[in-house]
Amino acid sequence: MADLQVAPWTLVIPVKRTAIAKSRLAAAYPQHRPELARAFAADTVAAALGSALVRAVLVVTDDPLVAGDVTEAGARVIADLPGAGLNEALEHGAAAAVAEFGESGVAALSADLPALRPAELTAALAACTAARSFVIDQPGTGTTMLAAAAGVALDPRFGVGSALAHQASGAVPLELESIPSLRRDVDTAADLAHAVQLGVGPRTADVLSLVLGAATGSEGLAC
């Protein structure tokens, strides 16, 4: 990662305990769903750390396996002390980011972007010139990234209909065409199929190879 002169953003990435994460993948991946959730987070963090505009990545999680993965990659882990939901976890992480890197902007990033490309994240962060900016997800109703300039409160409003909620709060949607990997969060099997078409990271690819092996009978596991 570059120094602050060219890396003005601190990213906060919240990760649920993988035992309960990505429940909508359970029907298609009943046995590998936790491993997929963990892999999504690992690939997202690795890609984020590869952006030239990212100074540090703070991962808010209570999952020890995820904590080990992201620490090894170079991220910092913050315990989800509020334990009260996604927006509360982001507020907690943003407060920690401001306390340590007050001169940097803070961006909240979804943890389920297994196809994320560092260059696309860099392009999006470079386009965040408003006080608060956000990236709308592929379906057009959610948010994959919310960025607040230094000195501006993050004010996350993730959840159902978060794109409209963020826009109503004054955040400006980024109008970029060339960031498909940043818009492709994964909640369903169809989402994952699209992410695979874009090209998923190595951790997700490894899990999917296990799923394929199970489906073709080369393992003693059921997918």
Can you put this structure into words, describing what you see?
There is one protein chain. The chain is α/β, with parallel strands linked by helices and 223 residues long. It has one domain: Alpha-Beta Complex (Spore Coat Polysaccharide Biosynthesis Protein SpsA, Chain A), CATH 3.90.550.10. It is built from eight helices and seven strands. The protein has helices at residues 33-49, 64-73, 86-100, 118-126, 162-168, 180-183, 189-198, 202-215, and strands at 9-15, 54-61, 76-78, 105-109, 132-136, 143-148, 172-173. The termini are far apart. The relative contact order is 0.18.
What brief labels describe this structure?
disordered C terminus, Spore Coat Polysaccharide Biosynthesis Protein SpsA, Chain A, seven-stranded mixed β-sheet, 223 residues, 7 strands, globular, alpha/beta, single chain
The number of strands is: 7
CATH fold naming = Spore Coat Polysaccharide Biosynthesis Protein SpsA, Chain A
Specify the number of helices.
8
CATH homologous superfamily grouping: Spore Coat Polysaccharide Biosynthesis Protein SpsA, Chain A
Could you say which overall geometry the principal axes of the C-alpha atoms support? globular
Number of domains: 1
**Largest sheet data:** 7 strands, mixed
How far the N terminus sits from the C terminus, by CA atoms, comes to 37 Å
Q: What percent of residues are in strands?
A: 15-25%
Main β-sheet, spatial strand arrangement: 3-2-1-4-6-5-7
Residue share in helices? 25-40%
- SS content category: alpha/beta
- Rg computed from alpha carbons, rounded to a whole number of angstroms: 17 Å
Catalytic activity: phosphoenolpyruvate + GTP + H(+) = enolpyruvoyl-2-diphospho-5'-guanosine + diphosphate
Keywords: GTP-binding, Nucleotide-binding, Nucleotidyltransferase, Transferase
Protein name: Phosphoenolpyruvate guanylyltransferase
Pathway: Cofactor biosynthesis; coenzyme F420 biosynthesis
